Amino acid sequence: MGIRTRFTDLCGIEHPIVQGGMMWVGRAELAAAVSNAGGLGILTALTQPTPDDLRREIERCRTMTDKPFGVNLTILPSVNPPPYAEYRKAIIDSGVKIVETAGHKPQEHVDDFKAHGVIVVHKCTAVRHALSAQRMGVDAISIDGFECAGHPGEDDIPGLILIPAAADKLTIPMIASGGFGDGRGLAAALALGADGINMGTRFCATVEAPIHDNVKQFLVDNDERGTNLIFRKFHNTGRVAKNSVSDQVVEISLREGAVFQDIQPLVSGAKGRVALETGDLDAGLVWAGQVQGLIHDIPTCEALIKRIVGDAEAIIRGRLSDMLSGELVAA
């Protein structure tokens, strides 16, 4: 039967499951596999060194899937920012119809994407930011709870509160992000008012994820306690997997008088890429969420999505329905 929501209708996908944009991970192999399985795969624009490289990656993805896929463009304040407008032009010129935006002051980008008929899904970590993005004209929101990998914001609101709080105020479709990895999560997100789920860490532990097998097994072996919160002192909180590097970052940050420059050599994106590509888990940061506690295998994207949707349907039609009929149901 499948699960139809406002988000599946908006994006023309079969299942309400999105693979979030992830630096170094959101490549054609993974995005195409997710899209072929009926979800929405996402390429990460800034993983590609130049806008022309992004154009080539979009075309490579098209050789691997004829299903809808999107591109993530994350806008962050920087002393030497990437040429965001050129990346945006590459996305538009390539005919991409779905974009996930995130980060700082996206209005210019949203306006241009919308002028070219692109569906814009904006990633937020707070209800007030989601409402601002809705006023900005985006088509859907991805609301990111405190459980997530990456930057959960500074409000520390977990998904159980954030999702329904956002659903109460938004009028556009919303997908829930942070802590999702199985059918129970999908059923819960739908019950809380979301129109689907976004998964990052869970998709890293799949056959098609373009990262080293050591990293995938690391995510399987970890549990829900296996993360560190870094950059808290500098008001740019990030959730990463617990390893020797993130432990050191936390320790240094706690020192009296510590400044960002004290940890900067440890947290470079280049070192994180080395960890992902070589499997050396002590080479750099590995970004991962608390959902590690729900990851127990490394399936194909097709098998994972099929299992999640099947389990969610079984929960909705079976366990929850039986409760309404008064039947005793095992947990």
TrEMBL record:
CDD domains, per the entry: NPD_like (cd04730)
Enumerate the UniProt keywords alphabetically. Flavoprotein, FMN, Monooxygenase, Oxidoreductase
**Is Disulfide bond tagged as a keyword?**
no
What are the GO MF terms of this UniProt record?
nitronate monooxygenase activity
What domain of life does the UniProt record list for this protein's source?
Bacteria
Record bears the keyword Chloroplast: no
Family annotation (Gene3D superfamilies): Aldolase class I
Name the record gives this protein: Nitronate monooxygenase
Kindly list the organism's lineage.
Bacteria, Pseudomonadati, Pseudomonadota, Alphaproteobacteria, Sphingomonadales
